[in-house]
Design goal:
Number of domains: 1
Oligomer: single chain
Mean pLDDT: 94
CATH superfamily: Fido-like domain
Largest sheet: none
Distance between the termini: 32 Å
Number of strands: 0
Structural class: mainly alpha
Shape: globular
Strand content: under 5%
Low-confidence stretches: none
Number of helices: 9
Length: 196
């Protein structure tokens, strides 16, 4: 089994990105488990009440720091914006500008009550996934960012289909279809999925 085989909806890595794997893993299953443990530690840190109060999720440094914490034991490039083009997302030279626009838009939404808390967090998630700022882990990072934003706004973290989305299967297909609906301007399926 190829350790770096791109699966359903996964972003393929460049050879240089693959070479930045930190632990000596042999199978895709080992990689998935290693990343899962790394992400669990980051989730605990991000959603701890003192960190929710102390950190501003609409700050660009926090956005990168969260990705770094999610993958720092897995990838040397954790927390750094990608420098290679991918099968989705904006061109890499646009990442910083598009992130700044997203953060500005989210601050505007928050300050003006444009959207209810859940919708604001889900819209942020969708836009962040669309930018695809990192070499890998974008969906997982965007979901945790949405959880942090929702929690900061007094809402519970999302359930995201109550299953592991990273693995291929019906839950992942439903998630990708909801993202595609949001791409077409209909955010409701993604909102429903986030709370399912």
């Amino acid at each position: 089994m190829n350790l770096f085989a791109a699966g359903e909806g996964n972003t393929p890595l460049s050879p240089d990105e693959e070479n930045d794997l930190i632990p000596p893993l042999a199978t895709k299953q080992e990689l998935n488990e290693w990343e899962r443990q790394n992400i669990l530690r980051a989730t605990h840190w991000a959603l701890a009440s003192r960190n929710l109060r102390r950190n501003d999720p609409l700050d660009e440094a926090y956005l990168r720091k969260l990705h770094q914490r999610m993958f720092d034991k897995t990838w040397k490039w954790a927390g750094r914006y990608r420098t290679t083009e991918k099968n989705l997302g904006v061109h890499c030279y646009r990442i910083r500008e598009d992130i700044a626009i997203l953060l500005g838009d989210a601050r505007f939404w928050l300050e003006h009550g444009t959207f209810a808390p859940d919708e604001l967090a889900v819209r942020f998630h969708h836009r962040l996934v669309s930018i695809h700022p990192f070499a890998n882990g974008n969906g997982r990072h965007a979901r945790l960012m949405a959880d942090v934003i929702a929690s900061r706004l007094g809402r519970p973290a999302f359930s995201w289909g109550s299953a592991e989305i990273a693995s291929a299967g019906q839950v992942r297909r439903t998630y990708i279809e909801a993202l595609q609906s949001a791409d077409s301007g209909d955010i409701k399926p993604l909102q429903r999925f986030a709370r399912s």
